[in-house]
Amino acid sequence: MFSVDGCLHRYCFSCMKQHVEVKLLQGVVVKCPHEGCKNEVNIDSYGKFLAPKVIKKVSQRIKEASIPVTEKVYCPFPRCSALMSKSEVLEYSKNAYVGAKQPGARKCIKCHYYFCINCKVPWHHNMTCSDYKRSNPYPCTEDAKLKSLVKKNQWRQCVKCNHMIELAEGCYHMRCRCGYEFCYTCGAEWKNKKATCSCPIWTERNIIYTRREVRQRRG
């Protein structure tokens, strides 16, 4: 049996494993499954029933939840994408020469490359943000390819952090990793856990699987 720190509610390891995995899919911080209990499950105890890869995801969720939406910054380099707060990355960058000369320049705390916090792109030396945007509508070939894929696959871009989101399955109520919630169909914001549009919340093809598909997923 697993005992939740603080409240001491007890559950079997199998149930706790499923509970944590579901909360991760929902993109929320894991709390005690007991009804009405608000105690967070201590990440140090996850090793008793979760694989290291899943524990890493939980750590990311906890950090994301601890940073307000307006303060979140993601490294624009695809191989990094580290999450930082604006104050955290500013403190890390303030002693760098390029940061002292150019207010928009920041240095990623993980990969240590410079990026522009205003444009959300790798740092553009000797160019203002306006000049950069005019001369680089698609900063690199990969961005042009991405735009083509977005249109082809009908992906959505979060208006808060600019990350692309693809709906693989489930309802059209989307919650980006930055915390912003919106309708996948039209992009309208969700406020107070309610839709601000009249789009249908789900379609059968995204919710129900055939028996063959279920067997394939389990296999």
UniProtKB/TrEMBL annotation:
<protein>
    <recommendedName>
        <fullName>RBR-type E3 ubiquitin transferase</fullName>
        <ecNumber>2.3.2.31</ecNumber>
    </recommendedName>
</protein>
<dbReference type="GO" id="GO:0008270">
    <property type="term" value="F:zinc ion binding"/>
</dbReference>
<keyword id="KW-0863">Zinc-finger</keyword>
<dbReference type="Pfam" id="PF01485">
    <property type="entry name" value="IBR"/>
</dbReference>
<dbReference type="InterPro" id="IPR002867">
    <property type="entry name" value="IBR_dom"/>
</dbReference>
<dbReference type="InterPro" id="IPR031127">
    <property type="entry name" value="E3_UB_ligase_RBR"/>
</dbReference>
<dbReference type="GO" id="GO:0061630">
    <property type="term" value="F:ubiquitin protein ligase activity"/>
</dbReference>
<keyword id="KW-0479">Metal-binding</keyword>
<keyword id="KW-0833">Ubl conjugation pathway</keyword>
<feature type="domain" description="RING-type">
    <location>
        <begin position="1"/>
        <end position="209"/>
    </location>
</feature>
<keyword id="KW-0862">Zinc</keyword>
<dbReference type="InterPro" id="IPR044066">
    <property type="entry name" value="TRIAD_supradom"/>
</dbReference>
<dbReference type="InterPro" id="IPR013083">
    <property type="entry name" value="Znf_RING/FYVE/PHD"/>
</dbReference>
<dbReference type="GO" id="GO:0016567">
    <property type="term" value="P:protein ubiquitination"/>
</dbReference>
<keyword id="KW-0808">Transferase</keyword>
<keyword id="KW-0677">Repeat</keyword>
